[in-house]
Structures
1.
Amino acid sequence: MTPALGDPPPPEQARVRTVLGEIPAAELGTTLVHEHLLVDIRCNWRPDDDPAIAFHPVAPERLGRIRASPFACRDNLVVDEPHVLAEELERYRAAGGHTIVDATPPGLGRDARVLEWLAAESGVNIVAGCGFYVEATHPAGLHRWPVEDIAAEMIRDLTEGMDGTGIRAGVIGELGVTGYPMEPAERKVLQAAALAQQEVSCAIIAHSAAGPDSPLEVIEVLADAGADMSKVVQSHLDDRFRSDIDRYRRAVEAGAGLGLDTFGRELYYAMRKTWLPSDEDRIDVLVMLIESGMADRVFPAQDICFKHELAAYGGHGYGHFLNSIVPRLEARGVSEADLDTLLRKNPARLLAGHPSAHRSG
């Protein structure tokens, strides 16, 4: 018998902090809990994968090579055009989407003012992230900070506002680790996130290193630090665990949510000498988890963080899961009730908090 997800607050108290202010959790609607809007992942730039595209912009004539070597093109690793993103979000809304969690912490291009504008312009609810990604993106000297000071940075973003704006984050994450075992500074960030979560009731979205062992290490560190595991999503398990049902069960038994969040990314990763799962592989796993009774632990998304993944640049865009994957799931016999659980009930329960957990301002 696996532990149940945390009981939600009473309906009149269940609120979610978006960049435009708190809204009732019941109004979130269809929600993807792991995406990126403004994002800069040049920390992962690998020009030697294909030097011919390293310094060229993303363009139709280079899309084939960029899809083959997404980390080689420097321009592909930066998404920073607000008006393009507004149009992408409008496409997502037209597909039936209502809310996106922008799991982009400082150090990866987050801009609170632009997120605020995007939410107002598109009509899509945006929940912003905070915390720290992999060690390569940490502020100088963070490895020397006490855990309590790292937690205080997260708490400030969640309760006072990001970057001095008064616009508050709504989740902690995406928290990253570089390898297995994780770096000591990354362990401190996870421990700090658990402390911050204890003061400010909110979700934690965690990124693991490649391979099947890192996610369970991340889950163990968070649990040992006192995190509310019913409000933790361990991301990228569609790649890390693939079809290993026993590892999914171990994560669920530890209380964590299962992020199957790279739908649409069917790529060869040269750095790892491996193909990512196909969408058909991901659908197989998702159906397996539903049939195994774990639907209430699964959080599908797309983790869009490359420029070539935007519809404006020839990619699948934020509406991919709703436009392309949902019909395929329905064809596989996934019920409307299960889709409602995946896309609406699970995110609302994960993101809901008590107003008293947020300081007034």
Note: DSSP finds eleven helices and 14 strands in the chain.
2.
Amino acid sequence: MGKGRHAIASHERRVRRVAVRYGVSLMKAQKPFGKVLEHGGYMLRDDDTRKIVFGNNGYEFSATLDEVEDFLLAQPKYGDSEND
């Protein structure tokens, strides 16, 4: 199923908003190459440590946008660990 340019941009914005809640940033390959063009194009980077937390399995930017979203949604809720 193909997605239009606007649908992809909208999906990226939604995933970026979710990522911020978990203290990570969505990174997108600026110049896709080989494997990235076939599958992938995204990574998540921890904002504090600057380490890649998802999307570098075998090669950089190895995750698709759907995989990144699924990874984030599988994490414990961002507000559950706070005891205020």
Note: The chain has a mean pLDDT of 87.
